[in-house]
Amino acid sequence: MRAILFGFIIIPLIVNSQNKRGHSWLFGINGQIAKFVGDSTRPTTNQLFWNGSSPNYPYIFGNGHSNICDSAIGNIIMLCNGMQLFDSLGNIIEGGDSLVPNNIYAQNTYPNAATTQSSLILPKGNNGEYYVFIATASDTTYDKWLSPTSTITPYDMLLYNIVDINANAGAGKVVKKNMPLLTNTEMSRTMMQACRHSNGIDWWLLKKTTIESNIIIRFLVTVDSIYGPYTQTFSEPYCSLYDATGQSAFNNAGTKYTQVQGKSNKIFLADFNRCTGELNNPIIYNTPIDSTTFPYLDNMGSRDSISNGVCFSPNDQFLYLTKRWNVYQLEINEPDSALAWYHVKHGPDTTLNDFEYYGHLSRGPDKRIYIGKIGGSFKQLSVIDKPDEKGAACNFCRKCLRIDNGAGGSTSPPNMPDYNLGPDTTSPCWPLSVHNILAQREEIEVYPNPSHTRMNIRLVNIRNKHPLIELYNAVGQKVLATRSLEIDVSGLSSGVYYLKARLCSPQEVEASSPQGVRNVVRKIVVD
Q1: pLDDT-based confidence at 58, cuts 50/70/90?
Q2: Based on the domain organization, do 290 and 433 belong to the same domain?
Q3: 281 Cβ partners below 8 Å, 6+ apart?
Q4: Do residues 305 and 440 share a domain?
Q5: Assign residue 273 a region: left if phi > 0, alpha if psi is -120 to 50, beta otherwise?
């Protein structure tokens, strides 16, 4: 049976400009953190937790880690290493072990995801619940990796978990575990990122699937549910089989998306529609291919052709790119490639023996860009101090983030979206654009409820007998507009819709008149 159920009135939430969910960063191996104070000063560093009696590192956070902080102070409340979920004391949250299939979980003593953007944490409203997303490999696919004839090692599953951080007297609990979003779907081991919807409440989660082509799948993540997948396919770039490195990122305004992967030697850049989650107007940039400065490789004729990370500058005018041995700046709106590219750093930022390759990039709350690294034996990371400046003025600062206290080395910043991005008030979309939303539920009735054929609308004490009725799907696309008070719902796909009834005051006859127009918004479910 297909049924329509009434919900509640949707009121847009304005995100607090002081949101500090991204103000503390985990930097790998054993709980090293950097905490931003919200201004232009460098973050303070510390060791979050450490079991000093253990001869080994009991907590391993490779490049696939993520974390989230409380919104008021910016202290870390939850950490994920891509396979396990921890509280801020280093305890595994109840149900937070084995967040991936058994074979890949059991591959080492301390399970963790080694590739960037393998995990991501999003708030599920403001009640202490969170989504934890993890890209991984099924047992069948992992076994294929071990075959001597295997040529590729893709992921094939995207899972999500729901965590109630207030459960167990604040210790937290996984209340839904290993829920599938994608299965039997070849996907890159990197490139999973999220951007807030235009309404300032929901999220778009984007994941690059397939290894050799460029297919991007998106999900709409709301407080109530997750909708999708929605798929877009692009002709370029053609990605090589090398999928162990790469990164996707959104700009500061949330209006552009970029990605790099492995040996493709191309940057993908597209406009991002925060209303629909769609990517438009794609542009492909060919990346420079320089020497490694490693004499052994250079003498063999090898070139630095493996891309690791990409990031927008705070002013959205530049892209920064890391390859294993080089760091570059690209001025996006400069048509002359000879002028657009600047070689920020050629070769290691330390001695050759101590160099662990440049990793993925992250834009900090202090408007610096932090450069991760692939290895985790040493504790210092290099920084781009003034990324809004062109050329040498961007100021590559060698090993300027130092986490010298505690045990273990540093890897890379965590995978985080911009938790502080608010609603788009310049080009709003449904339901953000609704004005004068009423809380008077008694003004409109719907019956029968539930219904799988037709829905009747009755106005209570409203003189306008033929209002404009509009129905929108979960991604903000209008699917119906009518002045009839009877709606045929039998042809609708299952899912959540928003019904908007534009009502007029007794003094107004036309629903389109700007004076006296009131919009009653209801959430309906078709199943």
Answers
A1: low
A2: no
A3: 270, 271
A4: no
A5: beta
